[in-house]
Amino acid sequence: MRFTLNQNYMTEFILLGIPFLHELHGVFFVIGLFMYIIAIVGNGFILIIVTIEPRLQTPMYIFLCNLAFLEICYTTTVVPKMLQTLLQKKTAISFACCMAQGFFHFILGSTELFILTAMAFDRYLAICRPLQYPVIMTKHVCIQMSFATWYVAFIIMFLQSIIVWRLPFCGSNIVDHFYCDIGPILSLACTDTHLIESLGLLTSILIVIMTLILTAVSYIFIISTILRIPSATGRKKTFSTCTSHLIVVSMLYGALVFMYVRPNVHSSSRLSRVVAVLNTTLIPMLNPFIYTIRNTEVKEAVRSAIHKRRGFLKCDF
Predict the structure, then answer these.
(1) pTM value?
(2) In Å, how far are 24, 231, 292, 298, 299 from 50, measured between CA atoms?
(3) Strand order in the sheet with 91-94
(4) Angle between helices 296-316 and 25-52 (to 10 degrees)
(5) Cβ distance 99 to 51 under 8 Å?
(6) Phi/psi at 132 (nearest 5 deg)?
(7) Domain ranges (residues) in the chain
(8) How many angstroms separate the CA atoms of 16 and 46, rounded?
């Protein structure tokens, strides 16, 4: 542990990774690196195909583009340092980098919840208000909603990050985690953190639970509308436009509720760390597959892009 002159100010933390699985760190490194590469390539693919294909530049895919960009940033905030820790068993991270990692981790996570809620509202309008949908959900409105999700998440997390940043850390600098999560960091503060914990729990409830409720209400109306469609084929086709979003929402909210919407954020149980690994690696990797593997519009856009590329090459030749 290091201190600056005449100040109780810690300059670095030591990340332990996943101590109870030290003997498997090599295996986890290979798996984590594979998931990280797939997540970057998969989400990068979504960004590229939506950008180059005019037919995909609709509100639903603009939101999906935001989600893909978020996943790239979200996983990059945590995974590279996690991989380094897995290789070295433990690794140092400066105080400033630790605070920045925690800040971006939570701002990106919060923005993702807001984006998923906006996507649920978009599906509600498309299915329950199809005639009004083109008038309400214009491209301009979609971009404004996307910007609002980033702005609100930034303001909420910035204010809380300032409070954590100013805490005195004068004891141990060992973080029993693979990234600077709020619970392990608060446990190192040499002051009473109950008020901050309560504020964090309240924020988690407001963001996680409220966005979950809004998403659930949207889907109650969506399912109610789908059930009134007389044709079984029509019901299946309409519901298929929502299944990808529902799968992602179920995985993400399940992990977040388990990790953050509970008292005693100091808790760093083995199970919570395993869930954190899945949340930062598995979900970002699966999202591109979930949203594209059964999406006929994306498949057609890919075929169109390939045909255009082949035609361009033939013309050059």
Answers:
(1) 0.84
(2) 39, 31, 12, 8, 12
(3) 91-94, 12-15, 174-175
(4) 70
(5) no
(6) -85, -15
(7) 12-316
(8) 34
92-140 pLDDT per residue, tens: 888 888 888 988 988 998 999 999 999 999 999 999 998 899 999 988 8
> For 12-316, CATH number?
1.20.1070.10
Pairing of strands 12-15, 91-94: antiparallel
User: What angle separates helix 283-292 from helix 25-52, to the nearest 10 degrees?
Assistant: 40
Contact present, 269 and 260 (Cβ < 8 Å): no
State the DSSP string of 10-73. Answer: B-EEEE---GGGGGGHHHHHHHHHHHHHHHHHHHHHHHHHHHH-GGG-SHHHHHHHHHHHHHHH
Sign of CA dihedral 55, 56, 57, 60: positive
pLDDT of amino acid 2: 42
Helix (H) / strand (E) element for 233: namely: helix 232-260
Question: In angstroms, what is the C-alpha Rg of the chain?
Answer: 22
- What are 134's two structure tokens? 């083109």
For the record, the structure tokens of 183 come out as 């619970």
3-state SS assignment for residue 228: coil
Query: What's the CA gap between 241 and 224, in Å, rounded?
Result: 15
Rounded Cα distance, 145 and 91, in Å: 39
Residue 282, by phi and psi: left (phi above 0), alpha (psi -120 to 50) or beta? alpha
What is the chain's length? 317
In the numeric block, the tokens 């583009």 are attached to: 65
